[in-house]
Amino acid sequence: MTTADIIRQERSAVVKVKAAEAGFDFCGISKAEFLEKEAPRLENWLNQNRHGAMGYMANHFDKRLDPTRLVDGAKSVISVLLNYYPEEKLAEGADDLKISKYAYGTDYHYVLKEKLAQLLILIQEEIGEVSGRIFVDSAPVMDKVWAARSGLGWVGKHSNLLNRDMGSFFFIGEIICDLDLEPDREIQDYCGTCTRCVDACPTDAIAEPYVVDGSKCISYFTIELKEAIPEEVKGKFNNWIFGCDICQDVCPWNRFATPHKTNAFSLSEQLAGFTKSDWEEITEEVFREVFRKSPVKRSKYQGLKRNIDFVKPV
């Protein structure tokens, strides 16, 4: 083993210690390089129009596959996971209106960016000058692919990253930097013959195992789609009005999910008491107040009202 190898390993160990200090649940490292295997998969997915109205998915194709085009001199991708599985949940009975668990609290973009900025400072204080950029689902970065390459889990049949210790209810963030680090090894796929996520999806969005047709996903219809929701999916939403957790809820690996420790992700008092009539009678003023810092504000008031009206029985 060379001196350079030892330095890389020591620096990688420091990064992981500092990631824990910053409050992340897991941290892994991969080499910043072109994603050769992903290129044809992404191209085929786009050519089949599985991104629907999400035109931004087709933008910056080269940058999406090559981190060195995003950060000059990039050598490593540091991936982190932050649990958001709630201790207190909204009612999810047959008649209750439902939102995805990731939207219970403060918008994760703010929380993760702050923690990643703190992590970068901690690394710089320990190692010295490090040039890098922070990414939280806001740039053409294939976060699940990088997390899988860094050994944090594998991409399951529902296309979410799965971690053997805590399932899939977590956020992913990255620091792409010029620090030469020792990369972690990928782990194997542990989905086996299970097809619960495929079988449970009410809109058949999982076109085939490991391939999700984004244009058929309930999350797409309730968040990304700005037009009218197609009538052919009427009655298939199971009362989801913002996002959907079905494929994660049925996944056996999520039996290992434990409540998060991030106060910002906790269910707000206002939202905790919401009833079906509160949703159906929500005013724009209440929407702005309750969802001021929430991911739900992405749908905007009119979008949320559209979703609520769409799931009403005929």
From TrEMBL:
Residues that hold [4Fe-4S] cluster 1 according to the record: 191, 194, 197, 251
Any one Gene Ontology molecular-function term assigned to this protein's record: metal ion binding
Xref: InterPro entries: 4Fe4S_Fe-S-bd, 4Fe4S_Fe_S_CS, QueG, QueG_DUF1730
Coiled coil: none
GO biological process annotation, one example: tRNA queuosine(34) biosynthetic process
This protein's GO CC annotations: cytoplasm
Residues binding tRNA: 226
Annotated positions binding [4Fe-4S] cluster 2: 201, 217, 244, 247
Gene3D superfamilies per the UniProt record, alphabetical: 3.30.70.20
Catalysed reactions, semicolon-separated: epoxyqueuosine(34) in tRNA + AH2 = queuosine(34) in tRNA + A + H2O
Catalytic residues as annotated in Swiss-Prot or TrEMBL: 137
SUPFAM superfamilies referenced in this protein's UniProt entry, alphabetically: alpha-helical ferredoxin
Pathway(s): tRNA modification; tRNA-queuosine biosynthesis
Cofactor(s) needed: cob(II)alamin; [4Fe-4S] cluster
Main location (coarse class): cytoplasm
Cofactor stoichiometry and binding remark: Binds 2 [4Fe-4S] clusters per monomer.
Compartment(s) of residence: Cytoplasm
Keyword tags: 4Fe-4S, Cobalamin, Cobalt, Cytoplasm, Iron, Iron-sulfur, Metal-binding, Oxidoreductase, Queuosine biosynthesis, tRNA processing
Family per similarity comment: Belongs to the QueG family.
Protein purpose: Catalyzes the conversion of epoxyqueuosine (oQ) to queuosine (Q), which is a hypermodified base found in the wobble positions of tRNA(Asp), tRNA(Asn), tRNA(His) and tRNA(Tyr).
NCBIfam families (alphabetical): tRNA epoxyqueuosine(34) reductase QueG
Protein name as annotated: Epoxyqueuosine reductase
